[in-house]
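Example with several molecule types.
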Amino acid sequence: MTLRLYNTLTRQKEVFVPIDPSNVRMYVCGPTVYDFAHIGNARPAIVFDVLYRLLRHTYGADHVTYVRNITDVDDKINARALRDYPGMPLNEAIRHVTEKTYDQYQKDVTALGCLPPTVQPRATEHIKGMVEMIRTLVGRGHAYEAGGEVLFDVSSMKDYGALSGRKLEDQMAGARVAVDAHKKNPGDFVLWKQSSPEEPGWESPWGRGRPGWHIECSVMSKAHLGEVFDIHGGGLDLIFPHHENEIAQSRCAHGTSVMANYWMHNGFLQVEGQKMSKSLGNFYSIHELMGTDAFGGRPWSGDVLRTAMLMSHYRQPIDFTVPRLREAEAKLSKYREIALGAVGGGDSFNRIENALLDDLNTPLAFTLADSIYNDALDGKNWAIAELAKFLNLTGLADATSQNEAILAQRDLDFSLANDDLVEAKLSERLAARKAKDWKKSDEIRDQLAAMGVSIKDVKDPASGELKTEWEVKR
RNA sequence: GGUUCCGUGGCGGAAUGGCUACGCAGAGGACUGCAAAUCCUUGUAUGGGGGUUCGAUUCCCUCCGGAACCUCCA
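Resulting structure tokens for the full complex:
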């Protein structure tokens, strides 16, 4: 079975053929580090991590290069720096913002079970390359200087818009594109803009300034992967304008007919049926979900979040809800219980691997895992190996399950604090049961339930004596 | 207005030109004083209308409904 991927460029699934099997190259647009990553940002990180693992599995771990950039030059970062560190020199404040956000991002994606990419370049490390590429574009007649900016001239590229299926004329018909007086075309976009003395800036042939958003990815991908590479990924919303513009810049600068052969885009995530937004109050950072009670009144571990993501196909929308997370948690814990200790590999039927090879069909992989589960329960080794392989290939063996520890600790704290009280009530209830005073017995059960304690009546198998077990219900 | 995509049971979701998987929830039963837990059994779906076909949920057309993008939001 060969790897097949849906290619946004052609709008169909294609067999993946790498340019160089000894070095498969993938670039994914990473975060702009101005605020903590939210649950929507987690999706591309997870999806492309699964692809990365699959590529490593298929071509060998040393034969895949995965680049995920860090955008640390951006006007939103500047705004955040001014807001959070008033009075501090801007450049210093910016460093605070980007470092803090970057550190948290690394922690978040690690907890979600994502392997570190081969390289995580930062935009600020590549300013020189950006200036060079812009200079090339100007020299080749694809960019021009106007109104203190350097702009890409979209009319200079014949098939601009091929990725998104957009034609320049159609866009203009929409009449919602901002028209700036100094632009030749409304669709022209900024490559370089001048900075005021307070703003961050770098020297360039066009004065002290800073790069536009799109040029960063063109330069960083070129630096680490070359002019043409295999896979370029990101969220659905990046197709236009970001990826369209990256393609324009890279192809025009290098004179190539493609930038990347396969373009992949993950679908969006909604929270409880609504688009996630701060105004609706359904905006959750990864950090909040894992470390607080903000969503559903309890923390959710990285592996549960990862499972909940992978239960849907990456191109489908996901509705993120509490029942979904519960289902994910239940599913995962039953697989883990049986397969986590097992050594993956073994030559089993490879059905799960084939599902993943078919454009990352993770929901099918879960389905297969469910059907294999019963065989694994019966102790069949091939089934246990297949489940273990599934957990490894999807990164579920690596994601943190820290919240189990947190919840267990909570339960323990509760138990220690309430042990005497609960025991007293239980013996009272046992007496009532022996006296067949069901009313009183049920009342006590209700009281305990109200405290969050659920009970289980059992018989001692040896003596046949009545006993009651209890635990804290979450 | 333009571009792209999606409609399968209560929910999540797979697959297929020929009884529509699987999981969760639900229902019934066993057990229990009653519950819980556990075990056994089980009902329910391809948005509407055309077309191609022996046969369409699958392919084509159309309608309805929904989403994303056209605004430096993954």
